[in-house]
Amino acid sequence: MASRSLLLGASPISVPNVPAQSRHVRSEAAGRDSCDRQVSGLRVIHGSSFLGSAPRLKVSAVPGRKSAAGGRCRAAAENGQQAGAEDPEKEELKKFEKALLEKKSNELADRIASGEFTVASRRVDRLGWLRRSLANLGPPGRPVAMFLATEERRWRAMVNASMPEARGDIRAIIGQPFFVPLFSLYLVYGGVFRLSFGPKRFVIVSDPVVTKHILRDNARSYSKGILSEILDFVMGQGLIPADGEVWVTRRRTVAPALHRKYVSAMVSLFSECSQRLCDKLERAAEKGEVVEMESLFSRMTLDVIGKAVFNYEFNSLSKDTGIVEAVYVTLREAEVRSTALFPYWKIPPLRVVMPSQRKVSDALKLINSTLNELIAECKKMVEAEDVEFFEEYLNKEDPSILHFLVASGDDVTSKQLRDDLMTMLIAGHETSAAVLTWAFYLLAQHPAAMEKLQAEVDSVLGDRQPAIDDFKKLRFTTRVINEAMRLYPQPPVLIRRALEDDVLGGYPIKQGQDIFISVWNLHHSPELWQDAEDFRPERWPLDGPDPNEVTENFSYLPFGGGQRKCIGDVFATFEVTTAVAMLARRFNFSLAPGAEAVGMTTGATIHTTNGLLMTVSRRTPHLLSPHLPLVLLLLSQKLLLLSPRLLLWLWRMEQLQMQVSLGWQEGTRWELLLKALWQPELLYSIPVEVRETRKASQVSETMGTVHECDAVFFA
Hints:
The protein is an alpha+beta fold.
């Protein structure tokens, strides 16, 4: 199977409603076979056994790819570089490390399949061993053995009725994406189980029915819990971490800002920022440089969100400024805290002593002061306006969300506005960049899908920028993005905390229980998806509805679900679709030769461990245009005079139509010829029938460079 890097996917299939308590009771042989099959099928190099520390997980994306000397190629001013030479010693070391990681991965599979981590079942097994030993002693041991047999039956009944539990060493998760070992455990213990690390106990949910119960049916009984505590320093009481009445109030205020008129206005912004990235890649393509796409996508989406949310021009694709660096310092700290084992940030002396914490504090001061200035300027602008606020209010000079919130008259403090803006900045920036990163990673490994996407974009857009009505026509492009979000969900885990006692999958849970909903497991489950590891955008019909949590019955959660679903789902989808379409139309992408295998690491979203190093090449035109007759018409008046009847016949037979646009009215005959050779489909974006009865002056005006004396043959 081609380049399966933890790639899972397929159309949903019907799954029998098996009780959760029965799904985790498996024989040792069956468990080992299932786990070995799944883990090896995913081609995961774990880097640790579940009960021991080891290096970071890597995803072996392309077999046989070699590591580049010098490690990760960072983005410089132009974010490009030449591929480095290979170091044989480093290659041998990496091969040894890879073999060691594979060995430990297989050991993990065997130990999970053996039931070693199931706490209660180990007790029952020991009881059974003692019973059999006493029975073998003959008459003296049989009375006790009979008593133990009764106790064993009672214990087994309790095990089947209680939530399965896995224990492990916390070091097993350090240094690797924690959702990967969760997937291995899910394959054995089912959709609901408890994971214990020392005194900490979490409930892991990978069942769509239970997920639906938590996110939608009984959503008011759950809060963000740990997530709110981690993100408080940067998001405060913003939409993502807020709970209770604060969340209800802020959602009612912020959600209307993302109305259709606003999103339509943002499409031109998406195109503008995507064009800046295209220009940057153009220079890299000319020089044959290797580019690190993940950082470029992150910068592009930062530019988008800055203008869209609070009308600030980061211009991060062109230069690094203090505010840009401050934003990234804050983002990195949020990701570190999201996976930290110890809340060091809660200890006041450490916030002063640790250099990283002082740097974060300085970054937050700069960001907050900048936001305060923007809020003050926006309030002055709104006060100077003499416009009545209405449901789809939009200021042409400043269509940002900040302007909408201030103009709405919402009685809110500057602190709350800052929290809202920072929440949208982080959530809207990181997730979109991650989706783009993994979408192009997948397309680079599946050239047939890229060609199909490029053909669709050529047909729908031609050489113009996307408009909002084009998105419903870019069906395959949308399906590629849907599949990328299934294979690499952003985020891979949703965090909740029970506000009251509840029952999940037949198991009672107590108030205060922390719950991890593994979106990764849901999206990768072989029980929920056919060909779960394959990248198949066609799994969803092109003429069908766009897949979401409702159409897929909570087995697919690209933007969460229920009342706390992401309010920027349409915004993000249009932003990513615009970028994919504009980049794919102009360039071909491939993974850089000699680069390290693409690995995963996680924070708020799934990142690559060493960046997404790619080579970019300009798409070459077809040497023979499929619309050669029209090209000949544009060549020169001499060609028209030589064989006018032949050209007229070709014109009629091909039923050629022309696009009337400023771009085609300007330029010499040769410039128009080059455009037609380069992308002939541009001539058909807006069909305008050319009739024989058209006057010479009309033809001359339409074609721009064809003289009136040449057009008489069409009169």
